[in-house]
Amino acid sequence: MTFLRVVFYYNGEFGERVVGNLLNYPGFCISCGEACTQCRSGKYSGAEDIVAAVEMPDPSTLGDFIDDVEPLLPRVPEADIAIVINVHPDILFGMLPRMRDAGIKGIIGCSESPKDMPLGLRMQVTRAAEELGMEAAFSKPFCAMKPDPAKPNIAAFLSRAMIGEPELEMVLRKGREGKDVIAAVSVIRSAPCGSTWFVAKRLIGVEKDDPHLHERISEAHHAYPCTASMDRDPEIGDTVLHRAGYIIRDKVEEAIRRAAPG
């Protein structure tokens, strides 16, 4: 697959998780503790793609508006894709011309809380990036991002990195009393934080028609844990955490419907 140079600009735990998930280094996921079976080991690694990961100032410490943003603008190395997570809007706007000059073709961002990149701001950044000749894609939450053929550079990155809206493949086998049981789960595309791998593992041995399937998915999603906000977001009419939970639940159900018997 085509080599893509990626640069991260982030602040906070969620950004650290996305970087760690893409690197897929040993010991990144510790959710299973001593029961770890190295389910992710050797499956992928973005280490050769990431040219820089820059920790940015916490936006909450900078105020709503920055009068002179120039001293806060980081260096932008030559790259193809920029991922921005929890970066102050004024800094992000100031970085756009530098990103263009560095050869960046696509900017990816997300909103994991109601205050982080609201809809109006996402639209403004997208428009400004496109005016500079760059693709831009934002989603709330990050695990809602789908590859868009109209944005081929970003779509190519999501495919190579195996992140975005989760996608699973399953194999079923007959269990006790002839009931279909989930025998194997493959992660085709994971939530950017990596939680899909943990949910997939926790589904092994579960009956396809288990009346508590939704609860099992939710428990695994929370146990990873998902770091999306639990504050109600007026844009989506729910919490971002719940929205992320509905996404993985729907994707598990889709995979079960498509599953081949073992």
Write the layout of secondary structure elements.
Blueprint lengths: L5 E5 L2 H11 L26 E6 L25 E5 L3 H13 L4 E5 L8 H13 L3 E5 L12 H10 L5 E8 L5 E10 L5 H9 L9 H11 L8 E2 L4 E2 H19 L1 E2 L1
Parallel strand pairs: 1-2, 1-3, 3-4, 4-5, 6-10
Antiparallel strand pairs: 6-7, 8-9
Helix pairs in contact: 2-3, 5-6, 6-7
In short:
The chain has 262 residues and is of the alpha/beta class. The chain is 33% helix and 19% strand. The model has no long low-confidence stretch (mean pLDDT 94).
Would you mind describing this structure in some detail?
- By secondary structure, this protein is α/β, with parallel strands linked by helices.
- The chain has seven helices and ten strands.
- It has helices at residues 13-23, 89-101, 119-131, 152-161, 195-203, 213-223, 240-258; strands at 6-10, 50-55, 81-85, 106-110, 135-139, 167-174, 180-189, 232-233, 238-239, 260-261.
- The strands form three sheets. A five-stranded parallel sheet has the order 2-1-3-4-5, sandwiched between helices. Strands 7-6-10 form a three-stranded mixed sheet.
- Helix 2 packs parallel to helix 3 (119-131) and helix 6 (213-223) packs across helix 7.
- The two termini are 30 Å apart.
- The model has no long low-confidence stretch (mean pLDDT 94).
